[in-house]
Amino acid sequence: MSSAGLARLTIGRQAAGLLAQITRQSLCTSLRLASTAAAAAKWSPSSVDLVNRLRDQQKHYATVVIKGRPFTVTQNDIIVMDRIKELELGDSLALNQVTELGSRDFTIKGQPFIDSSLFSVKATVIEHADGKLFTVTKKKRRTAHQKVTYHRNRHTMLRVSMIDVAKL
Question: Which InterPro entries does the record match to this protein (predicted)?
Fold first, then answer.
């Protein structure tokens, strides 16, 4: 994986206590991938420290991409999206295309996506709902011709069951 595709960790404005003692330079360092002879990927020690600080935060959010559309979600949020016919009620999904992962104090931004070994986002299909009824009226002038059709959009509803940052 190239260094351009790795995530960068930055600090938010509300950092306090121990986080305030960390120098700005170490917070803005990008996560670097160091390859070993066994082709196993390891993160640099400063990157491991910063990811573990994000893990210690209480609540996390993620911006996930599903069918080309971004959704910013937290745990127990409901995502209403276009129908996915292949899914059944109760199916569990692992959402791997995450562009941003963060908390109140820290954010990891992907370029374009975050490495999936850093997080776990899962969602469950809870409903296949129908949208509201649209009335489409077609009319021709100066004649009695009028045609009325109806249309409903179909939706799939997902509940985000887990957002977890991996411990490095």
Answer: bL21-like, bL21-like_sf
76 forms bridges with which residues in the sheet? none
Q: Is 149 exposed, middle or buried (0-12, 13-18, 19+ CB in 10 A)?
A: exposed
Instruction: Name the token pair of 113.
Output: 């996506």
Q: How many other CB atoms are found less than 10 A from the CB of residue 36?
A: 8
Going across the sheet that includes 61-66, the strands are: 8-11, 106-109, 98-102, 61-66, 69-74
Structural domain boundaries enclosing 107: 3-165
- Containing H/E element for 27? helix 24-27
pLDDT digit string, tens, across residues 116-137: 888 999 999 999 999 999 999 9
Distance from C-alpha of 107 to C-alpha of 115, rounded to nearest angstrom: 14
- In the chain, the amino acid numbered 128 is H
- The number of folded domains in the chain is 1
Q: State both tokens at 48.
A: 């491991």
10: nearest Cα among 111, 101, 137: 101
